[in-house]
Amino acid sequence: MVDARKRPEGMSSPERTELSDAIARARAGNSDAWGELYRHYAAPIFRFCRRALPSREEAEDATMGIFLKVREKLGQYDPSRPFGAWLYKVAANHCWDILRRRRLRQDLETGEVEALPLEHPSPSQLQRLIEQRTTQQVRRALAELPARARMALVLRYYADMSYDEIAEALGVRRTFVGVVLLRARHQLREALGQRGSAGLAAGGKP
Amino acid sequence: MTHFDEMTCLLYLEGQLERARALELAAHAEVCADCRALLRVLERESQLLGQALVEEDETVPARLLAPPAREAVPWSGILAFGFTVAAAYTFWTSIVEPWRQQLSQAGFGGSNLLTMLFFGGVLWKGWGAMLNTLEYGAMMILGILALGLLRRRWHRWTTVAVVMGAAAAALTLPPAVSAAEYHAHSSFYILASGEVVKNDLIVTAGTARIDGTVEGDLIFFGRSLTINGHVMGDVLGFGQSVRVNGPVDGNVRVCSGMLLLGGPVAKNVTSFGQTVEFDVRSQVGGSMMLFGAAATLDGRIGRDLTAYVGRDVLNGVVGGNAQLRAGRLTIGPTAEINGKASYGGQRPPEVSPQAKLASPLEVHIVHRRPDYASPRFYLRQFLHWCAAFLFGLLIVFLMPGFFSDVVRSTERAGISFGLGLIVLVAGFFFVILSILLALIGLPVGVVILFLYVPAIYAAQVFVGAFVGGKLLGPTASSGDALGRLALGLLVIRVLGGIPILRVFVWIAVILWGVGALTLALYDRSRTRPAPLAGGQAIG
Hints:
The complex is a heterodimer of chains A (206) and B (539). Chain A is mostly helical. Chain A has 10 helices and no strands. Chain B has 539 residues and is α/β, with parallel strands linked by helices. Chain B has 4 domains: 6-65, no CATH class; 83-171, no CATH class; 268-368, no CATH class; 374-525, no CATH class. Residues 107-128, 149-157, 170-179 and 528-539 of chain B have low confidence and may be disordered. Chains A and B meet through helix 2, helix 3, helix 6, helix 7 and helix 8 of A and helix 1, helix 3 and helix 9 of B.
């Protein structure tokens, strides 16, 4: 696998033509082409779900669900727009629906908490925190975040979504996306900081 | 010099600032070391986040390697249809029809069992009103589901509005339940001699004595009830002991440890309980239906007698047919049966030669052990297997996530067994006790008790899925998972058909399955997300 964020824009042009060809054939109902698309996107979408949802099993089920949905909705896809972006949009909606159904979205109701001012970070302290943490520790800290904060970070830094797309997926106002992301970063820093102060014992073997 | 805040810096890095503002910030950062440091560290944080998220830390599960296939021929649909027919047939012939026949012989006649027991007024007339409520509730749920299917993505407020609107509409419907006098006494209640209650009387008390007259129905929850007065409607009693000495113009329906009938009852008597004593002075105008451990019947029954009793002694008169199922039956010298009499049980009955029977007693000795030589036994086993598989299919299609949760819980066998034991034994008694002490209402209690039935039935499905999975290993496709379910159910059915062992097999399956179900429900109730990259989540 190349980059997990398999947006066609990041690919070499022969690969891109091949893929858009597969998309067109899959839209026409060709199941080989569909298989090709699936093999191309299954891993990144699974990883996306794995980041967004609490357990591996749920991520597996969600991946299946997303592809079933995509196959159904393939006719609605506008070929003039990037396929990857559309796919991630479907995936984001699907995962967010799952989380919402599981009532993990309590954090959404706390509008007034969102309005609280955030403490201005000291660049040198933050620098130290970032340098000390491994990607594995970051992933573990991410898992502890409230659903929306985690989802926002995943949409932005994994799925490469624009602020407009994130706003739509999470059902928040466009102007609010930056606040959600910044707050999520603060929560992540806090989780990372606690991990550090609790000793790096937990940072060893998962 | 004023610095830029973190929000603005982040938006700048993400390319979300307007051009003018972005230029302003860039110019400021040229000269301000603090802001430059902040920008750099935020950028570094973005990189770390991107790396952490994109990194391939886990392999993609095998079941995701091939696209989920859609079947060309709807085999599963055809199979499911076949199973449905088989299951419906089994259910009808082996459960509903025999009961219906026996009940209609007992003088209840007509409509089907459930309707009769619950809504036809056999147990309580109020069920009619309950039925209406249930119907409205079901209609509301259906309506909401239909709306939900039409519009997939719901705004919560729309849902709330629809539900509240429907609830308001339901509330404006005219109330179906008529007025009743209600008495809740913690220890003792007496309706004194000469006192008259003009409508229905509902009593919750430790001990209650009715010496006066009740013109409507009498409904009692408590420890003991004694009726010396006159009840013009029905008597419905739940308690440890119920004594009826005075006349009752309606039916007597009792669920109690002991029922003593000493006075005349104009209509029918139904009793679920340990012992029934039917005094020689007493008389029942209609039919009598008994379920319990022991019954001594000395009085006179106008119409039919149906008894499912461990130890049955009949000395009285039965005007109609007698249908007796008992562990032991004694028909004494003073007994008289004017209609047909039949007996089913494990031991031959003791019939006194002086007893007057209009026709000879039909005796059917029941063997506890199944008849392994008969092909019907195997056909039946097959039909039961079909029915269980169909039920499994239903659960898988309706609640796939929940199904796999429960099957996963079966892996924790020890906890499942323990929980199953607690839920089935202790829970059952707790509910019964709560009803008897009137801690919870009767409708709620009955609904809870009825939830046990599907849970117990579903137990084999969950355990079957687990057993099948263990035998053939984990699977990728849902079709294979159903195959494993079918195999597991077959294994249970075969083991559950072996003499002697079968009892233990079924007890184990039920405890395990119900326990796993409870465990999964419990896990669901705490919706704490498991760690994303945590140890136990990575299989």
